[in-house]
Amino acid sequence: MNLLRIVWASITDKPLHSFLSVFVFSMSIALIIWIQQIHVSLQHQLLNTSYGVDLVVGAKGSPLQLVLSSVLHIDTPTGNIPYNKAKKIAKNPMISTAIPISYGDNYKGYRILGTTEDYAKLFNAHLQEGNRIEKPMQVILGHTVATELQLQVGDTFFSSHGLLENSIDIHATPLTITGIYAPTNNVIDRLILTNLETIWDIHDHKGHHSHTPHKKEAHLPSHQNDSITTEEPQEITSLLITFRNPRAFLTLPRNINKKTNMQAAIPKYELEKLYQYTGTGIKTITLIAYGILGISCLIIFVNLYRMVKDRSFELALFRTYGAGHWQLIQLILLEGIILALAATMIGVLISQIGIYYLQNSIEQAYKQHIEFSLPITEIALITGMILLVILIACLFSILPIFKMNISKILNNEN
């Protein structure tokens, strides 16, 4: 008795029922895998990407917006703050490093960030080629920027005002690429770094921007460059702070929020809140996915159970020709496994197609690559759950086999 041939004939005999079983089951698998990949990625991105920054000081507004714009660079900033006031905060003895950042321009959608050399140290970023920035109007590219835009050391380009790509408000002063960072798989890969003077000069509309010499580079952590010769007070977007000891968490943020016109936001706290908000939606979608999985289990059970009832005469004939209960049970199990394997392969394919388009949309909108992957434990859990569902459906569908009255079935059929 060729079990595979008999099972395949049973599946193709009722193509609509078989298609419905595979379709619903594959949709539930696709949704479960898709949402779990997003959940794991969000957990990593939101809870493990503060890059050692303990505090962000910026303009008043939404603290979450301040963190997203200054740490993850996926939002617009809340505004600017005076650079001289930021330097006063940086002198606090509880602060280990204070890194100023300033931006407002982009090149083909990639943000241009004015900062100091200490910013690259947050990511352990090292130059893959080229040299450090020595004067204004020089930039270093993140690895993703250089790769995607096919730029090299020595090339020049013109930046656009704002954080979105546009061909209208383009600055007249060219920027020269002096170096390219090695890949870090962090946010710095999709940034264009320069010094603070470049940002200030580009936005100086009094006609003395790119040709005004600067004797010193702004560098807060050493607390030595406390004055820069300029006609007007300069501004930065925010200040990235790391503490010397945990006690600073108790006093410094509160003092800044109460005693200054700036705000202090703790990245880990704000990203944890965001994760909790998104986690509610993820849990809801996950419950829906498990509900669909339960429905697909019920559909498979009904189809297998009806197959046993409708083909009772053929099964009774198998018994008369010497087939035992176990061989009949194998027919049911084999059909269920084939349907499950087909649904699993289709479900995995659909989920990865969805992840691919999600990655593309994120990269186009935020110029950020997010790796969606599942750990081995999650894959084993999902696989075990699918096998358990099929096993339950098959076990309930084989019950009529044990209650089969062969003589009665054959007599009624005759």
TrEMBL record:
Membrane topology: Multi-pass membrane protein
Keywords assigned by UniProt, alphabetized: Cell membrane, Membrane, Transmembrane, Transmembrane helix
Residue stretches making up the ABC3 transporter permease C-terminal domain: 287-406
Residue intervals of the MacB-like periplasmic core domain: 28-199
Record's compositionally biased regions (Basic residues): 207-217
Transmembrane segments: 16-35, 287-308, 328-358, 379-402
Region Disordered, annotated ranges: 207-228
Subcellular location, record wording: Cell membrane
Predominant place of localization: membrane
InterPro entries associated with the record: ABC-4/HrtB_transporter, ABC3_permease_C, MacB_PCD
Protein's UniProt keywords contain Cell membrane: yes
PANTHER family, sorted: ABC TRANSPORTER PERMEASE (PTHR43738:SF2), ABC TRANSPORTER, MEMBRANE PROTEIN (PTHR43738)
Protein name as catalogued: ABC transporter permease
Protein species of origin: Aquimarina hainanensis
Lineage, highest ranks first: Bacteria, Pseudomonadati, Bacteroidota, Flavobacteriia, Flavobacteriales
